[in-house]
Specification:
globular, two-stranded antiparallel sheet, binds S-adenosylmethionine, 267 residues, Rossmann fold, alpha/beta, ten-stranded mixed sheet
């Protein structure tokens, strides 16, 4: 099958993901899906029946963007396709009995929807789903720089300046902390390539969490290929599928310009 766009890192296919993915016969480390949830008047915004089953045959790990309304309405379909919500996994560290959060709230800064009878909506959800044993799913929570009070010295007035090592079990503070489950990233504004174009700063941590370095990410609803660009920038390979040719065209232009961007415009 011919790709609409292809280079050493990414491939984009034009067509229905329910036909293209089975024909490609690939297994990915991670799916990043931004499906049409059928909540707008856009012509492409129709829930593709059966897509969760198709996705399930190509990866064990998946992020899906979506509204609470969509996830609640489609919960039985996720479950029937054997996708489990990662939120339900109990922590695995010794003696650890808390539920960590793998459902991301994307805080957009600028909102959408200004109905007078609702709170102004400035967020979206991204939920992580997995199949098979949790231990078989790649998980690497990104860390972010931290400059607040030193964790190990907290609450101890007499402790000497922190050395980075505490007690018998060594704790080395490398100045980072686990990324938080609420991620701020401004929505794409102005000249958008797609009405629902996702910003790279929200995609980057999702990809780094679920895909090992050099691994393969699939976006079955690629739109303007934001996931493909974010994956390539993070050092992963990516395959995108998009049902509309105009978005594939916009994607091809974007992806062809990508090496220049990744080189910092030096080329
Ligand atoms: C929410 S948008 C994705 C936007 C994308 N994340 C971006 O950053 O540009 C969903 C996309 O899925 C595409 N689509 C809808 N049904 C599809 C199908 N069955 N197979 C492939 N693509 C489909 C639509 O044309 C639309 O561009």
């Amino acid at each position: 099958m011919d790709a609409y766009y292809e280079d050493e890192t990414v491939q984009l296919y034009l067509g229905d993901m329910r036909e293209i993915l089975p024909a490609l016969a690939v297994t990915a480390d991670l799916i990043v899906a931004d499906p049409p949830y059928g909540e707008t008047s856009h012509g492409w915004d129709r829930w593709p029946d059966g897509w969760l089953d198709v996705a399930a045959r190509h990866a064990q790990s998946m992020w899906s963007f979506g509204s609470m309304r969509m996830f609640m309405r489609r919960a039985a379909e996720f479950s029937a396709a054997d996708w489990h919500l990662s939120q339900d996994v109990v922590g695995h560290d010794e003696g650890d009995d808390f539920h960590g959060d793998i459902n991301i709230v994307w805080e957009k800064h600028n909102g959408s929807g200004f109905a007078r009878d609702r709170f102004r909506r400035v967020h979206e959800h991204v939920l992580h789903w997995y199949r098979g044993p949790w231990a078989g799913v790649h998980q690497d929570v990104p860390r972010v720089p931290y400059s607040g009070p030193n964790k190990s010295a907290r609450g101890s007035a007499n402790r000497a300046a922190h050395t980075g090592v505490v007690g018998a079990s060594s704790y080395v503070d490398n100045g980072t902390r686990l990324m938080r489950s609420v991620i701020k990233a401004a929505a794409v504004r102005g000249q958008k390539r797609h009405p629902d174009e996702k910003p790279l700063p929200i995609l980057d941590p999702l990809i780094r969490y679920g895909c090992p370095p050099g691994g393969l990410v699939i976006d079955p609803f690629a739109g303007s290929s934001s996931t493909l660009e974010a994956a390539a920038a993070a050092g992963m390979r990516a395959i995108g599928i998009e049902g509309r040719e105009d978005y594939c065209e916009a994607s091809a232009l974007r992806l062809a310009a990508m090496p220049l961007l990744l080189d910092g415009g030096a080329a």
